[in-house]
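Appendix B, record 7
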Amino acid sequence: MAAPPEITLHDLNGYWVMSKSLSDPLDPVLALQGINWLIRKVVSLATITMRIIETEDATGTIHIRVEQTATGGIKGETEERKLDWSPVPHSSGVFGEMNNRTRWTSVGSDAESGGGGPLHPWLTEGWLVEKPVQEGTNSYVQNWVVNEKNGWTAEQIWGFATVNGKRYHVRKFLVKKGDAEAKARMVYDWMGVAKS
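Structure tokens (predicted):
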């Protein structure tokens, strides 16, 4: 289901399911990250559900907790995002040991990649312009992930986009390993508000 207008990046609280029919295939991205064929196949068949809990701490920093579950025997994982660009280590049964940084960003010409330089143009295209909660703040979430052991980086931009004439929560992923890169646009169906 499309996201209602009151659901924004400043309040993602609720349940989301990745739409297989509207999302890009994940296989090229997962292959570049060194995920074996069997796990890639299971992921392609699985239904991936996220429960997002978004809070603000006493300093005004936003924290986003993503509890992911999947069908097909894939173990669920929880990811913590702290939108202050500080490094947060994460251990994943699928992806291994990683460090990620997350912040608010723009998708304009001034937007900077986590690896330095401008954001890849593909990451900046196709977004709806959402009104920021406060004047002067940015309206998109940027996540930069480094997996040193496997030699890849992943840059994500989160926002909302029009897909088939409806407003959806979208995440664009750009994975790089050496000179190779792979991209995927993930589209999420809104399933309702998280229960306390």
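Remarks on this record: Helices lie at 27-32, 37-45, 121-124. The first strand starts at residue 14 and ends at 18.
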